[in-house]
Amino acid sequence: MLNLTPEFSKSLDQAAYLVSHSEHVVMLAGAGLSVESGIPPFRGPGGLWANGKGQTNLSYREFLRNPGEWWETRFRNEDKPGDPTYELKIAVDQASPNPGHHAIVEMEQHGFLQCVVTQNVDNLHRVAGNQNILEIHGNRSFLRCIKCGNRLPRDDYHFDILPPRCTQCDGIIKMDTVMFGEPIPEDVLMACRQQVETCDLMLLVGTSGTVNPAARFPIIAKELGASLIEINPDETPLTSWCDIILNGSSGELLPLLLKRLLNIGLIERGN
């Protein structure tokens, strides 16, 4: 439970003022946001890869070596209790947006937030209702052709043959999520860079600050003159770069920040 001391409340007020008086606000969202929806992180205590489980079926090199075999293994692992692929699928299928996600949507709707750059692949931003999203690590609810880049919902595709083939160019289809050793799609990376270089404020929400290139985005923004606000229960490698640090869960802090933003709007309209 969050302890709203006078000092912490002052930091929240300062954060709200900074957000409301910025021209272009970008959010970098990480796994900490989705943890509150019941989706475990990959790394760290309680993570899917903790206790020696390790990652399975996530190498792009292995996918390219034999795409058909990769897909067979994927479907087999998704039906194997105890496998990290199975556990993630069950967690994501059962998850729903938490109060943090809903606050982000309202921030966007009221014009306080211009773009969300998310490292999460769970589709919860879309389910919650965000419109301007850049999914730098892809989205596990979609598929992507490795030849033409065409993306389509996984639920709309019938896996009649393996490996699946693109209906537009007959290229091989993979999960949209970015695999180890796979380049981030250039169009997504360029769009992220444009947002980073444009923003005058970046909100860091639930990101560990350890996975590149996303971990570099706040530093680049800061070097270009942007302010940084971090919302995270723990200190991260990015904490020392931040102007305002709010330690706590995003599911509690984002609704509080939104409430203050709306109050500022009411006061300014009243004046």
Walkthrough of the structure:
The chain is an alpha/beta fold and about 270 residues long. It has a domain at about 1-40 and about 95-135 and about 185-270: Rossmann fold, CATH 3.40.50. Helices cover about 40% and strands about 15% of the residues. It is built from ten helices and nine strands. The strands form two sheets. It has a six-stranded parallel sheet with strand order 3-2-1-7-8-9, sandwiched between helices. A three-stranded antiparallel sheet has the order 5-4-6, with no helix packed on it. The chain is elongated, with a radius of gyration of 20 Å.
Write a compact overview of the structure shown:
By secondary structure, this protein is of the alpha/beta class. It has helices spanning 6-20, 31-35, 60-65, 67-78, 84-94, 99-109, 124-128, 186-198, 217-223, 250-270, and strands at residues 25-29, 115-118, 133-135, 142-145, 151-153, 173-175, 201-205, 227-232, 244-247.
